[in-house]
Write a structure and sequence with these properties.
- The structure holds 2 protein chains of 2 kinds.
- By secondary structure, chain A is α/β, with parallel strands linked by helices.
- Chain A folds into 3 domains: 170 residues, Nitrogenase molybdenum iron protein domain (Rossmann fold); 122 residues, 3-Layer(aba) Sandwich (Rossmann fold); 92 residues, 3-Layer(aba) Sandwich (Rossmann fold).
- Chain A is 44% helix and 16% strand.
- Chain A contains 18 helices and 14 strands.
- In chain A, the strands form 3 sheets. Chain A has a 6-stranded parallel sheet, sandwiched between helices.
- The longest helix of chain A is centred in the last third of the chain and has 17 residues.
- Chain A starts with 15 loop residues before the first strand and ends in a 5-residue tail after the last helix.
- By secondary structure, chain B is of the alpha/beta class.
- Chain B has 4 domains: 118 residues, Rossmann fold, CATH 3.40.50.1980; 109 residues, Nitrogenase molybdenum iron protein domain (Rossmann fold, 3-Layer(aba) Sandwich), CATH 3.40.50.1980; 138 residues, Rossmann fold, CATH 3.40.50; 56 residues, Helicase, Ruva Protein, domain 3, CATH 1.10.8.550.
- Helix content of chain B is 44%, strand content 12%.
- Chain B has 20 helices and 15 strands.
- In chain B, the strands form 4 sheets. In chain B, strands 11-10-9-12-13 form a 5-stranded parallel sheet, with helices on both faces. Chain B has a 4-stranded parallel sheet with strand order 3-2-4-5, with helices on both faces. In chain B, strands 7-6-8 form a 3-stranded parallel sheet, with helices on both faces.
- Chain B is globular.
- Chain B starts with a strand and ends with a helix.
- The interface between A and B is large, with 64 and 57 residues.
- The complex binds iron/sulfur cluster.
- Iron/sulfur cluster sits at the interface of chains A and B.
Chain lengths: 424, 506
């Protein structure tokens, strides 16, 4: 594959390569790792197997908390053989949990592959438990199973379940949708405030007693690209979605802020005035990191659905050329603004046959391969330089002040490889 | 249903992966949804393996259910065979696939592949990771091992080392050396680095060394029954156990017992005067049964520690661990509930924990040092250097590792001497801990304060409390408060502190 000058045009209409085979991605349960931190009064109870518990533990990496606000009710033989009534068992587990943890105000029953295969109805359980524990605790159900969701889609199912439960309201205002690290969220709120966007609320909301209201006058803006189901649920409730690229890098952030501002009748020029210093800082920080990236090629394995917006950032702000952009699921509705910015050339793929994709990655020999933790070391051992994708999900990477760090996450593996003089 | 927060063992199919990943020339087709691929990172990240585990996940989705998951399984097997050309194919199901009952075993047999296809049952809702490894290796052995004439000279197989095992890589080197010193050759090491054709050669050995009962016992028992190969029962971790192992090997093989102790340093290091401070250090031992049994013996007889708690998370080893506890005059803790273990450790207030990476976190929270002796382990437990647990070098490594988190003898003495000096502050901790020394939160406020139970610590008593060595301070504090409460005292003075000390001194 050549990386010579890309032909004019963008990826807006590039046909999508879909292959079916082994996927090498996490399931939606994984998103509990960051979601529970955004909702300090929530507990996530997975109804699943030892595998689900082991996944959460492995994804969390270290066990910082003795009693985290998530856990797995592990199904046992008796549950499967129908000897114990699963619904009664859930009630018992929840009862025990809530009596021990009085700090819990929201409980999420999270479906897994096993609970779905045995058709355990968690929706009904959630309704019943909500009645039983009202008004103290509100119980929701959603699926994080690997047969229904990949990785970040878990956040989408969770937020969609919450969206269906929000009060209705008539206030004119903005609802920002998507979990962000606190530091980023504060920066964003500050920017929106200075721009003058009225009545800004966030989903997921930190305090369950203060949910955002949704109505005809609500405008929503997504900060994460994997929230299609949530967007649909909110639109159904009357809200209108602001179409924008995602707020990565200086350009992405500016475009996002302008789109939001214009939805509220605020001029783009005003946004540019207000953000001038931040934009300069971001551009400067990115340009320093981009020295290691300019003129280099990048290949994305599917992981978090952040791939397309990140490829947009790397190609339009860091001077890289994308060879393949893989995504576990491609929601064209949400990705269109970013796709339209990426210069034509890369393969756009959805889903995965990991063996075939590895063949393509080896043939493409990109300067940087972005992939999951299961593939990174094996590819490094083959001589490829990799960036493990999960860090892009766990680190603060959105908006202006993180633009340099985001570029740095991609630059570091390349700089590191250049530094090491001993052959592995 | 049972609520689980952190788990010591993964599901059985992860055990099967530990065997498959350790081997070469074998491929494992696992009927599983996409999310189960997380298990790959255990091997590529924690163990830093430079290749993908040889596992194909069928990746069935909700829309496949009820229609063609079986076809998907068959296709995955065929394409894995085509692509990887393994010598043998292992097939199994993860927890979800177990529920859809596609019968991978039957499907595999019907495929007509020109290589052995080995089905393994992994009952996810009853058993766990160690069982999965043990059972998988047993099934592979049963399917592939052939009856062969014995090698001319005495030889042994090393059985049990797997991928993601605690120091398995280096233990193999060490045990191989032990046997070589007695003129015994290693026939096959398995599953670690073994190919299916190596497994076929197992029958040529004169006996088996069962390195890890957790992952190799079923195979050893079968080999004993089928090929009349005896196997060793002593796990050679520690000086005494290594000596016993050498004797056991001699008894089994007819070779002369011989142990080269020229590089063995544990006994002298333990006898030298700086180690006096180790005397009677209270240790809590928890992990997998085999490592706990060997560690308790070392702790007691080779380090001079006082074992104040002992237990294991794998129920399969409950019986020997209970027997050991009885010998030590303790009640064994057999539990895979992390919160139980934390409570037991907190109650025993040891000065050192010998545990797994789970206990390392417990230790961090309780301010108790911890050395790792058993799986589950984390990335730092796969060091670049040679660091076995078994044999002569293993004993040396264990001495260093266990002593490292403690304050050294002379240093402890000096700390006590300079404690009251203005330059000194407790927060500095022992010099070799850097900034990571965990400090109990009691240190933060030296002013009189209301403690739990509404007892007030007078400033003088607070000051006195800080003179008590840091590792027992939490316990001293709790005991004193309990004593004060039992006496109906409102305040804790220096006098009361010492009364409490006398009271608890038995
Ligand atoms: S893929 Fe399914 S079975 Fe596996 S961890 Fe995720 S939810 Fe549990």
């Amino acid at each position: 594959m050549t990386q010579a000058n890309v032909a004019a045009g963008s990826c807006a209409d590039t046909p999508v390569l879909r292959q079916r085979g082994q996927h090498e991605v996490f399931c939606g349960l994984t998103s509990i790792i960051w979601l529970h931190r955004k909702m300090p009064d929530a507990f996530f109870l997975v109804i699943g197997s030892r595998t689900c518990a082991h996944l959460l533990q492995s994804a969390a990496g270290v066990m910082i908390f003795a009693e985290p606000r998530f856990g797995t009710a592990i199904l046992e033989e008796t549950d499967l053989a129908g000897m114990a009534d699963a619904q009664t068992e859930i009630d018992l587990q929840v009862e025990r949990l809530l009596s021990r943890r009085s700090d819990i105000k929201r409980l999420f029953l999270v479906a897994s592959c096993p609970s779905e295969v045995i058709k355990l109805d968690l929706e009904t359980a959630a309704q019943r438990l909500s009645r039983m524990h009202a008004p103290k605790v509100r119980v929701h159900a959603y699926s994080g199973s690997g047969i229904e969701t990949t990785f970040t889609q878990g956040e989408d199912s969770c937020l969609a379940a919450m969206a269906a439960d929000l009060p209705t309201g008539t206030d004119d205002g903005l609802l920002v949708v998507g979990a962000l690290p606190d530091v980023v969220q504060d920066q964003m709120m500050n920017l929106l405030d200075r721009i003058g966007v009225p009545n800004v609320k966030i989903l997921p909301h930190a305090d369950s007693s203060n949910p955002p209201a949704i109505g005809k006058n609500t405008k929503i803006a997504l900060v994460q690209p994997f929230l299609g189901e949530t967007a649909t649920a909110l639109e159904r409730a009357g809200a209108s979605r602001i179409v924008a690229p995602f707020p990565f890098g200086e350009k992405g952030t500016t475009a996002w802020l302008i789109a939001v501002a214009e939805a509220f009748g605020i001029s783009a020029q005003h946004v540019l005035n207000v953000t001038e210093a931040a934009r300069n800082r971001a551009r400067h920080a990115v340009s320093k990191e981009a020295e290691a990236l300019t003129g280099r090629t990048v290949f994305f394995f599917p992981d978090s659905q952040l791939e397309i917006p990140l490829a947009r950032f790397l190609t339009t702000e860091c001077g890289m050329t994308a060879l393949e952009i893989g995504s576990p699921y491609l929601d064209r509705r949400l990705m269109a603004p970013d796709l339209a910015e990426i210069p034509q050339g890369p393969v756009i793929s959805e889903g995965q046959d990991v063996e075939k994709q590895l063949d393509r990655a080896r043939a493409a020999k990109a300067d940087l391969t972005v992939c999951g933790l299961g593939l990174a070391n094996p590819l490094e051992a083959e001589g490829m330089t990799t960036k493990w994708a999960i860090e892009l999900v766990f680190s603060p990477v959105h908006f202006y002040e993180q633009a340099g760090d985001l570029a740095g996450l991609f630059a570091r593996p390349l700089r590191r490889r250049a530094l090491l003089e001993v052959n592995a | 249903m049972k609520l689980s927060v952190w788990t010591y063992e993964g599901p059985p199919h992860v055990g099967a992966m530990r065997v498959a990943t350790a081997m070469k020339g074998l491929h494992f087709v696992l009927h599983a949804p996409q999310g189960d691929t997380y298990a790959d990172l255990l091997f590529t990240m924690i163990e830093r393996r430079n290749h993908r585990p040889p596992v194909t996940y069928t990746t069935f989705q909700a829309r496949d259910l009820g229609s063609d998951t079986a076809r998907l399984f068959r296709e995955s097997c065929l394409s894995a065979y085509e692509r990887f050309k393994p010598e043998a194919l292992l097939i199994g199901a993860s927890c979800t696939a177990e529920l859809i009952q596609d019968d991978p075993g039957g499907l595999g047999a019907a495929m007509g592949l020109p290589i052995p296809v080995i089905p393994v049952e992994l009952p996810s809702y009853q058993r766990k990771e160690n069982f999965g490894a043990d059972e998988t290796f047993f099934q592979i052995t049963r399917a592939l091992a052939k009856s062969l004439p014995r090698t001319k000279t005495v030889s042994a197989n090393l059985i049990g080392p797997t991928a993601l095992g605690f120091r398995h890589r280096d233990d193999i080197t060490e045990v191989t050396a032990l046997l070589e010193d007695m003129g015994i050759a290693v026939n096959v090491v398995a599953p670690f680095d073994a190919t299916p054709s190596d497994i076929a050669r197992l029958g040529a050995a004169h006996f088996n060394v069962l390195m890890y009962p957790e992952t190799g016992e079923a195979a050893c028992r079968w080999l004993e029954r089928t090929f009349d190969q005896p196997f060793t029962k002593v796990v050679p971790i520690g000086v005494g156990a290594t000596q016993d192992f050498v004797q056991e090997v001699a008894d089994i093989s007819g070779a002369t017992a011989r142990l080269d102790t020229s590089r063995l340093r544990l006994p002298w290091y333990s006898a030298s005067v700086d180690s006096t401070y180790l005397t009677g250090k209270r240790v809590f031992v928890f992990g997998d049964g085999s490592h706990v049994i060997t560690a308790a013996r070392i702790a007691k007889s080779e380090m001079g520690f006082d074992v104040v708690g002992v237990g294991c998370y794998n129920r399969e080893m409950a019986r020997p661990v209970r027997a050991l506890a009885k010998e030590l005059g303790l009640e064994a803790l057999i539990s895979d509930d992390y919160l139980d273990v934390e409570a037991a450790i907190s109650e025993a207030s040891p000065e050192l924990i010998l545990g797994t990476q789970m206990e390392r976190h417990i230790g961090k929270r309780l301010g108790i040092p911890c050395a790792v002796i058993s799986s589950p382990v984390h990335v730092q437990d796969f060091p670049a250097r040679y660091a076995p647990q078994m044999g002569v070098e293993g004993a040396n490594v264990i001495f260093d590792t266990w002593v490292h988190p403690l304050v050294m003898g002379l240093e402890e003495h000096l700390l006590a001497m300079f404690r009251e000096d203005p330059e000194f502050h407790d927060a500095a901790g022992p010099s070799h801990h850097g900034h990571s020394a965990p400090l109990p939160p009691v240190e933060e406020n030296p002013k009189p304060q209301v403690a739990s139970g509404d007892v007030i610590w007078l400033e003088s008593a607070q000051k006195e409390l800080r003179k008590i060595p840091i590792f027992v301070r939490g316990k001293a504090r709790r005991n004193t408060e309990a004593f004060a409460a039992s006496q109906g005292a409102q305040e804790i003075s220096v006098e009361l502190l010492y009364e409490a000390k006398a009271y608890y001194a038995r």
